[in-house]
From TrEMBL:
Matching SMART domains: WD40
A matching Pfam family: WD40
Family annotation (PANTHER family): WD REPEAT-CONTAINING PROTEIN 49, WD40 REPEAT DOMAIN 95
UniProt entry tagged with the keyword Repeat: yes
Residues covered by region (Disordered): 494-563
Compositionally skewed regions (Basic and acidic residues) per UniProt: 501-522, 534-563
Keywords: Repeat, WD repeat
Protein name: WD repeat-containing protein 49
Keyword Lipid metabolism appears in the UniProt entry: no
Intervals holding WD repeats: 60-101, 196-223, 280-320, 384-420
InterPro entries: WD-EF-hand_domain, WD40/YVTN_repeat-like_dom_sf, WD40_PAC1, WD40_repeat_CS, WD40_repeat_dom_sf, WD40_rpt
């Protein structure tokens, strides 16, 4: 692709060349952002800086077919893309996330169509052409209060404070009361302008770890004070997918084939450097996730679908798990269809279960597939397709009792499975029949980014976060209680749950803005606008972040028990 333009007060024509592997079907330019978007045959949308042509600024992955059309919304930092499999995606450019996905509404034609996009921004009309056919989509406004103002990337439960903690792509962390849904406090700009990709708690539940795309992991107390800065990316911006806390070390992973480890004895200084992982590089793809089983069993999953079992004390690799382990000369996959995105050991299934050949480890990832493994004999015991593989990778979690497996996809659909007796006894081959599906529900409008189960009082709950800017609380096996920031509830009240409306008060902290949706579909809040301070991240550098307390009048009712 070649672009030529004449700079100001210059008679010469400047020419820039961009090279892609498989070609480009469409291109668009955003004047304000100075970005060029290209629609790729390789299912990806690439964003380019016209002055830096060696590589794209970022890659937007989410389509499952060749992308045929792209179009920026000039008034917002958003991008529309349309693929050959008749899927329209709306992207938030600042967070690089798909905030809305529309399918099954476009005309089905026998002939090969070439689709063009035309957006009338003032009227909020989108016109799509399908050869001789024209389709008009209209956006309508609706009032909706979201949990966050930006896509939510992670959520967890703090059992000490009985609070839900969520982080978003605008580097904000919000604490909520699990029992009522009330917002307690908010930490702004934890990593400056960098996205928070994942969060974790230490064993005491008094320290919060936030990982940013700036390559740092920060350690906070719940007064909003930054205690340590961990240099995971060695000064580089990297994608951190998980932070796992062990007894004497902290593992950080997501962007390379080797684990990054921090020893606890190194935390005597505010700025902490990583140590060497004794096991070295064992994976052939980037390590994306890990799980730990006491006393010393560590498992890690990588982008190429391989799982490695380690001794966490010696940091030595012991075994490898692959669906087709006999093919040692395998080729590296070209997409994420085999990527392992989540791992967990099934609670209650001890070494005795593994010794008899039953499954004790669960993995999931690309193509919507869940796999159950026996770590004792390094074999695949069972697998099933939990969600439509065309939707891409899924996320999952398990209940503390070991009965429920919960999975979620990129359309916001959550499924609860009964795995209490699933794959307890080995068969000759890998079992492929589905476990019992208990419930299917859709508390979110878009991509579910994280799932977490917890016990609050005597109730088993599910927390879910989404790129639609919401955090949902549900009962297991599946009944949505409400969305944080939108509803208030009372979990302690006996009898059937009747969500109570939030009393009249100022919502300026997280915005009761007008949002747009495509006709016939609900959609998350419009993005591209930030309410954070545009200036320097002085609060983070000084070891603290600004904290907002929700409704100080009710402070006596909020049991934060902060250290």
């Amino acid at each position: 692709m070649v672009i030529g333009w004449r700079e100001k007060e210059s008679r010469s024509l400047r020419v820039t060349s961009f090279f892609t592997k498989r070609g480009v079907w469409d291109v668009d330019h955003h004047c304000g952002l100075s970005l060029i978007a290209t629609a790729g045959v390789d299912h990806q949308v690439l964003l380019w800086n016209p002055y830096v042509t060696s590589e794209p600024v970022c890659v937007l992955s989410g389509h499952t077919g060749p992308v045929t059309a792209v179009h920026f919304t000039q008034a917002k930092q958003q991008l529309l893309s349309y693929s050959k499999d008749k899927v329209l995606c709306l992207w938030d450019v600042s967070s690089q996330l798909c905030v809305h996905r529309l399918a099954d509404v476009f005309p089905k034609t026998q002939e090969d169509t070439h689709t063009l996009l035309f957006l009338h921004e003032e009227r909020q009309h989108l016109l799509l052409s399908f050869n001789s056919l024209l389709l008009l989509l209209e956006t309508v406004k609706e009032e909706r209060i979201s949990s966050h103002e930006h896509p939510v990337t992670c959520v967890l439960y703090n059992s000490l404070f009985r609070q839900v903690v969520s982080g978003d792509s605008a580097s904000s962390v919000i604490c909520w009361l699990a029992g009522t849904g009330q917002k307690v406090k908010q930490f702004h700009r934890c990593h400056g302008n960098a996205e928070i990709s994942t969060i974790a708690l230490d064993g005491t539940q008094t320290r919060l770890f936030t990982a940013g795309t700036d390559g740092e992991v920060k350690v906070w107390d719940f007064n909003g004070r930054c205690l340590h800065r961990m240099n995971a990316g060695l000064g580089r911006a990297v994608d951190i997918s998980q932070v796992l806390l062990l007894k004497r070390s902290i593992l950080v992973m997501g962007w390379e084939r080797m684990l990054t480890v921090f020893r606890l004895h190194s935390f005597s200084q505010p700025f902490v450097e990583p140590s060497e992982w004794k096991g070295g590089v064992q994976h052939r793809g980037d390590v994306l996730c890990a799980a730990f089983q006491p006393p010393q069993t560590l498992v890690t999953g990588s982008y190429d679908g391989e799982i490695i079992i380690w001794n966490s004390s010696t940091e030595r690799a012991l075994k490898r798990l692959r669906p087709h382990a006999e093919h040692e000369d395998y080729k590296k996959p070209q997409d994420n269809c085999t990527a392992i995105t989540r791992l967990f050991f099934i609670p209650g299934r001890t070494s005795v279960t593994a010794a008899t050949g039953g499954a004790d480890l669960v993995s999931c990832g690309g193509s919507g597939v869940v796999q159950l493994w026996n770590t004792q004999y390094s074999r695949l015991v069972g697998q099933f397709t939990a969600h439509n593989g065309d939707l891409g990778s899924i996320v999952m979690t398990g209940s503390p009792c070991g009965k429920y497996l919960v999975t979620a996809d990129r359309e916001g659909t959550i499924k609860t499975w009964d795995i209490k007796d699933y794959c307890l006894k080995p068969d000759e081959g890998a079992r492929e029949e589905l476990p019992k599906l208990l419930h299917t529900f859709r508390p979110h409008l878009n991509h579910v980014t994280h799932l977490e189960t917890c016990t609050h009082g005597d109730r088993l709950l599910l927390l879910s976060s989404s790129s639609d800017c919401s955090v949902a609380l549900s009962y297991l096996p599946g009944e949505t209680v409400g969305l944080f920031g939108q509803d208030h509830w009372c979990l302690e009240r006996p009898g059937p749950l009747q969500p109570q409306r939030e009393p009249e008060r100022d919502h300026s902290d997280h915005g009761g803005r007008e949002n747009t949706r495509l006709e016939g579909k609900r959609s998350p809040a419009a993005l591209g606008e930030s309410n954070t301070d545009p200036g320097h991240d002085s609060a983070a550098e000084e070891g603290g972040v600004r904290i907002k307390d929700e409704d100080s009048r009710r402070k006596a009712e909020v049991d934060t028990r902060e250290p």
